[in-house]
Predict the structure of Glutamate-1-semialdehyde 2,1-aminomutase.
Amino acid sequence: MNYQRSSALFDEAYKYIPGGVNSPVRAFKSVGGVPIFMKSAKGAYMTDVDDNQYIEYINSWGPAILGHTHPEVLEAIKKQAEKGFSYGTPTELETEIAKYIVENVPNIDQIRMVSSGTEACMSAIRLARGFTGRDKFIKFEGCYHGHSDSFLIKAGSGMATFGNPSSPGVTPGTAKDTLLAKYNNIEEVEDLFRHNQGEIAAIIVEPVAGNMGCVLPENNFLQNLRKLCDENGALLIFDEVMTGFRLAFGGAQELYNVKADIVTFGKVIGGGLPVGAFAARNEIMDHLAPKGAVYQAGTLSGNPLAMRAGLTTLQLIKSDENFYQKLNKSTETLDFEIGKILNQKSIPHRINRKGSMMSIFFHVNAVSNFDEAANANHALFNNFFHQLLEKGIYLPPSGFESWFISAAIKESEIDKTLEVIRKFEYS
Ligand code: PMP
């Protein structure tokens, strides 16, 4: 493929935008090569500035669950835009989407809209601290909850106790309140509660992790977290920015039948426009300003275009009673058939999948936490990525990211993808 124009645009972007991109993973730093500049996207496909076409397995990192530029969502955005882009006042539409979400997601009474997943998770932690009067919280190594300071903490080796800043600019004072444990390791969480009695406000967790590749909760991990929170007076925060409305309409809470105290959303909830949200029962949400004292605000929060795109997307999902069944079936086919091809080629691998989230680890062993994900053969993933890209299959440009399958991916796209993978040269 020819990437001439992408290459020129990247050189130009590099002069004016740090690293040439507005979000780091886009820069292809881990897979190498020049990032591809897209000019349009429709259904299962994206087209780049050199007119190459790609079958899409990122879908804007999750939001485009219906595929790109769904005609009904597009129409709804256009109609809304004619009425104005942003008022900075309350609108009827905000109540409509809030009511719709509250009625469809378990264990929440109220929801507050923000403009990104980062804001949602940052605000959820503040609310948990305000509600419990405690400072510390537990997060898991390899989970990502946005780029708010207290989340950018790298785990130390061994059993983690206090975090260290892993990004310059995060102060040790902030880092000390972020406690780290390994995903799927309930003993480490028990230890943290034992050593920080009465100090832990919350546990925040990706109920299915998608930021170290796709990693599933095992051995009743989520149920056990619930139990530990109850025993210790801490809140359980499900970060459903990826999993919300993707794994089930009621998200991971519904799928695993585990009750969270606070739930955060992003991605699908905005239908491709910038949206995040956090929700909880009345007792907790009543602590939020202007009713309560925990402050949180946003100029574009509840933006009418974003609300309309989100609500239309959610309604379209809900209107098809077999939506998840079909979406999951496509993903299952990909998983099963890719596995068969890689086995025929004798390439050691593990495919992790839940619903329409999946990823391949080139690894002989199962992957259930960050260390195991990091031990996979990432050089081989990068090779796999580039060979597929060259043939028009667009995967996330990192072995530490989940793929997001959209409803626009049909049998023909899956067949084409498998045909390309059959030609994968492994040396
Ligand atoms: N939480 C999770 C689980 C995420 O995957 C992400 C982003 N990928 C975020 C939070 C942050 O969302 P945003 O990029 O919209 O700030």
Confidence is low (pLDDT under 50) at residues 155-165. The pocket of 4'-deoxy-4'-aminopyridoxal-5'-phosphate is lined by residues 61, 116-118, 121, 144-146, 206, 210-211, 239, 241-242, 266, 276 (CB under 6 Å).
